[in-house]
Amino acid sequence: MQDWKDKYASYIDKQQSSPPEPKPASGSRLTGELKTDLPELQARLGENGDLVVRDFLLFGAYPAVMLFFSSLVNMEQVREHVLKPLMAPPSGQPEILENAGGMIHYIWSTAVQVTQGTTTADLSALPQAAVKGDLILLIDGIPEALRMEMRQIEMRGVEQPQTEQVIRGPREGYVEKLENNLSLLRYRLQSTDFRIEISPLGARTQSRVALCYIDSVTDSSLVAEVMRRISLIHTDGILDAGYIEQFIEDQPLSPFPQVQSTERPDKTVAALLEGRVAILVDGSPFALIVPALFNQFFQTVDDYTERFIMGSLIRIIRLIALACSLFFPALYVSVISYNPELLPTDFAVAISGGRAGVPFPAVLEVLIMEVSMEVLREATIRLPQMIGGALSIVGVLVIGQAAVGAGLASPITVVIVALTTIGSFATPAYNAAIALRMLRFPLILLAGMFGLYGVMTGTILILNHLLYLESFGVPYMSPYIPGKWRDLKDTLVRVPLWWMRRRPSFLHARDTDRLPRSVPAAEIDQILRQGDETDE
Amino acid sequence: MNNPRQITSLRAAAVISSTIIGVGILSFPRYMTEAGNSSAPLVAFCGVLFSFISYWLLASLCQRFPQETLFVFSRRLIGRPLAAIFTVVIMLLFIVLTGLTVRQFGDVATTVLYKKTPIEATIFLMLLISLLSSRRNVVKFSYIHFFYLPLIVGSILVTILLSLKNVEMLNLQPVLMAPGLQFWKGTREATYLFQSSFVIVLLIPFMEKPGHAVRAGAWAIFLSGAIYVLIVIASVGIFGAEETKLLIYPTLEMARSAAFGEGFLERLDAIFIIIWVISVYTTIYTTYYISAYLLHKLLRFRDQRMASTVLLPVMFILAMLPSNVFESYQWALHLGNAGMMLMFGYPLLLWTVYLLRRHKKKVTS
To answer: How close does chain B come to A441, measured CA to CA in Å?
Structure first.
């Protein structure tokens, strides 16, 4: 092992002495001479600490070299299933090893025990294969190399997703490895129509990006549009699905997310069944779902797994929480500083009594409290869990009781700020909650300047922005706007599943029906009715 | 997905009616009672009928040219220069209309709601949100109207229903009085509110079924007409004709008298004002949009953004010109007169030319 100092010196030497050598012409072929092929291949791969070049005598007689990245493959398996049988003397007829074809055939058919492998004579394809995790075997005298798939990456197990917890529903979440994630999807969607298109993306990372859709359901123009947008991405690295999201969304300047990201395979499958498209990236435990509409950001899996009355109720509560997190402080400021006559007299007196010792105008008071709440929230997220819990208790005490005692804020302001914060936590999608939290501040300022009229103006601006937004050609406020009555079955309320026989029309699905129309409309209704009759 | 004909008849109707319900709603009962005393509802109703006739003239003409707006096909009918002159006049009309509407809004907002806020700020803010939303295309324009309409209509209806329990039937009698000159003048004033139904001209080329333009307008005018008539009935019924004449904003007083539950929401008027801000916004948005659209077509800007930005200072200055509330109402009435002549006369002229040409064509062929 070289010392870091030597390493640095030699690196600097190399940089200064030779200009970066031109890339070797692609398409070069193997010569079969180990002496020329191996240095060529090593030059293309560069110097790497984890590159293993192991020369040995194949079947005890033929010189050969094995080449792989120790970080990508399981060394134990290589030793057990590749190196060991290859070094052992051949059993049976040694004469077929004389010609190249016989040798390769013998290796594949008798010696090594790998599930996937190919033979190639193309030298330029080998480096890419090696960085992917293949093992490469070069044999002296044979102008062909053997590629064996030995990739194995350490991976955490499938766990309950942290960001989207459910009370009733599957506990599985995505992990970082693409294959695992795709298998979670395939496991749920055992349909021959389920399509997965995989291609590398990112000039340097070559991260594999998978585009998933159901062929017979999803609108083909939607799939084409998503592919077009992905194909236009030119960047050197895709480290997470979030990178792709930023490249393909319609309005990057909008505070509202236009692509949904989820950690849950069941949610992804539900979206695919509606006719949406999902994008997964190797190395990211999140799937992107497009098109994403405003509606989607306050729906959860629980809405569908629980009975429909509960689902609807909880959804409405969530919407109220969302409205609270956006409007409460602004309305409070405008009412107490401009229109106190709106409040019942006793209440107005109580509020002004509480505010008696506070030196700031209401706007400033609310802003101070809101900002400190945001700081507290951010600090709690960033800290390790053990400290975070303690901090939040201290913070709440400071912000709540002590601020009132010190005359910094009035008790009612604390109540309002607390309601706002709780409301913002009740929005299931984190990024949508941030959007609303962000818009709360301009609304407070407008309320401080113009009262209710300012709040109204701000609201109109926000609503107009929402009405203007589109996600992959679908209006963001669908299905409220452009009013399709049929689609309203799954919005504010969630009607029983057997009523939702059609897919959302705004997705222009090829197959509009979830069930064939020939299936009787409501068997369940008949069953219910029969139950009634037998009771009588 | 990229089909330009996306506006359904329902949405076209929504655009028209949310445009019609606007700033005038607060003082409307006063004009009507001044014209017809206790027969005010009848005055309003006749106004609605007349507006519909004027609308029908325009919309049925435009239906015959489903691919183009009025400003395009008028060139073919009466020649380029004459059509251009009329387009300019219509544009000026809508620019002044926007300015005066926003001024009336500012007057109400500062006298009733925000006594400390300068009227300039109120007006500027309203113009600014109209400007920001005028930069969108016609389809988005219809989305916005369609979204707000249920809010506007719903809350106004609730207010009216709540206040109906205070109505004295005696105040509404006699229902019919001899229709004199005053009566017809009142009717004419009522039609001013409906002038913005002109917006159908912009919508027709984007409608799914351009043939339904008249039907959509009929729905819209009768929906908003019904609301106006109901408001007149309610406020005359509550206050009586003589009292209504004395109130500057009878509808607001009506909302104040409507209590909801005892002791909790005693003052419904603030909520009413909130909704009223939206309804005024939709009205100003439409007139602003028409002005910006016309300017953009006249000067052949690439898109509407530039045109709408240019208009903002003009409208702001226009809005600040009247020196007091009385003057701004006076101006609004004059503008209404001028507008009615134009909105009635221009389609009539186009119709005549259209019929003559078609006749000629038939004769020659």
So the answer is: 18
